[in-house]
Write a structure and sequence with these properties.
Belongs to the AAA ATPase family. The chain has helices spanning about 15-20, 30-35, 40-55, 110-120, 135-140, 145-165, 170-180, and strands at about 1-5, 25-30, 60-65, 80-85, 100-105. It has about 190 residues and is an alpha/beta fold. The protein folds into 2 domains: about 1-105, 3-Layer(aba) Sandwich (Rossmann fold); about 110-180, Helicase, Ruva Protein, domain 3 (Orthogonal Bundle). α4 crosses α6 (about 145-165) and α6 crosses α7 (about 170-180).
Length: about 190
Amino acid sequence: MLLLKFYSPYLSYELSPKIRNIHLFIPMKGPEIMSKYVGESELAVRNIFSRARTCSPCIIFFDELLAELDGGDPRKGVYVIGATNRLDVIDRALLRSGRFGEILYVTLPNQDERGLILKTLSKNCSLDADVDLIAIARSKACENLSGADLKRMMAKAAMVAHRENCSKIKAVHFEKVLKKIKPSVTDKV
């Protein structure tokens, strides 16, 4: 199965929790496999697919990289997901049968999804007991924030807490950040 995700910029943090339950999730970015030496990029792609076949069922997630999808070896148990915010420039040959079979548009996260994203992002943070991530996610200030925006918000709240010599991030730190943070995604797609 092949799936191409089409989304607004900065939405890669909203991967479905169900997708994350696959045995192996291999995220790949272009610079990680591109090489100036002849044959090295192809070898890297072959190695990724070999690893994926060994660990199937698994997902290979190519973020802003569309590699060769045709191959002699079957992809049994290997799922390829591509992502782009520029569907208009994708070569239509990549969308033909046997390559990306589905195209999904990923929207901005809703209140519940923002809450899940914030909970995930806060796992390694020390939050004060007064912080209600669900209430923050439901606030008007978070309404049009993407996963990347929420990550930036969490980092900025931690920075404010650090500057104030606080050992934990408090609700007031989020309030300060939310007054200044702006959505990175616009209505223009």
